[in-house]
Amino acid sequence: MKIKLNGKEREAMPGESILELCKRENVPIPTFCYHQAFGGQGACRMCMVEVREEGQKEARLAAACTYLLNREAEVITESDRIQRIRRTIVMLLKRRAAGDPILKELADAYAAPDLEAVVTEPENCILCGLCIHACEEMGKSAIWSMFRGIDKRIATPYDEASDDCIGCAACARICPTHAISMEEKDSKRIIWNKSFELVACRRCGKEYATREEIEYLKERSDYGQENLCESCRKKTLAITVKNYI
Ligand code: SF4
Ligand code: FES
């Protein structure tokens, strides 16, 4: 399927998102709530582009991460209109996460003025929703989006230590603005107001997961049975395969 991308003819696969096409073609588009594991969420609106599909008179704005290409179209990823929108989005996101270096960089790039900061919890959160998604993927749903409007924030129910949380830290690792606080000290991980014991890898001794995470994964699959960290697990697997062939 032919797509005119910034004036150049390109081939897209039906059902492919504009962002996927741009990534393949090395056309940069800023994103916050997109993650390759989950695809686009359309939450942050940072990836806005202009699209005009075959038969349409005017180009309209769309989030590149969620817009799926199903017929011939023209896509523009940089224009005055897009610049203005991204400037506004950066300005609003920076208000929530003033300390984030990526947002600072984007604010300079789009000449976004400073607005008065709002205090958010966790600090620096831009409400992209990736952490909630990661927690759901783990099958836990220990964190939610609470309240509405300016009070909206991500938290455990009633801000209390959640029975569902296994301390896997998938939320903290995926967060684009490093907004989720996590402390690791004295073989303990503290996250979302809960303390977890860290387990050391049987082979290299590196602390690699919480006891609750390992127990949970053992129940669901073979993963974790051998008490090895990811890197030692791969090495063991490579040796087994080598011996086998
Ligand atoms: S804590 Fe991070 S991942 Fe979660 S919504 Fe906020 S910015 Fe996104
Ligand atoms: S990256 Fe597309 S809307 Fe957030």
Give the bound compounds.
Answer: iron/sulfur cluster, FE2/S2 (inorganic) cluster
Mean pLDDT: 90
Number of helices: 7
The global form is: globular
Describe the structure.
The chain has two domains: about 1-80, Ubiquitin-like (UB roll), CATH 3.10.20; about 130-245, no CATH class. Helix content is about 30%, strand content about 20%. The protein has seven helices and 13 strands. The protein has helices at about 20-25, 80-95, 100-110, 130-135, 170-175, 210-220, 230-245; strands at about 1-5, 10, 15, 50-55, 60-65, 70, 75, 145, 155, 180-185, 190, 195-200, 205-210. α2 packs antiparallel against α3 (about 100-110). Bound molecules: iron/sulfur cluster (SF4) and FE2/S2 (inorganic) cluster (FES). Iron/sulfur cluster binds near residues 122, 128, 129, 131 and 175.
Notable features of this structure?
alpha+beta, 245 residues, 21% strand, 13 strands, binds iron/sulfur cluster, 2 domains, Ubiquitin-like (UB roll)
What does this entry show, briefly?
This protein has 245 residues and is α+β, with helices and mostly antiparallel strands. It is built from 7 helices and 13 strands.
Spell out the blueprint of helices and strands.
Layout (H helix, E strand, L loop, with lengths): L1 E4 L2 E4 L4 E2 H7 L23 E6 L6 E4 L4 E2 L3 E4 L3 H17 L4 H9 L20 H8 L6 E3 L6 E3 L14 H5 L7 E4 L2 E4 L2 E7 L6 E4 H10 L9 H15 L1
Parallel strand pairs: 1-7
Antiparallel strand pairs: 1-2, 3-6, 4-5, 4-7, 8-9, 10-11, 11-12, 12-13
Helix pairs in contact: 2-3
The protein binds iron/sulfur cluster and FE2/S2 (inorganic) cluster.
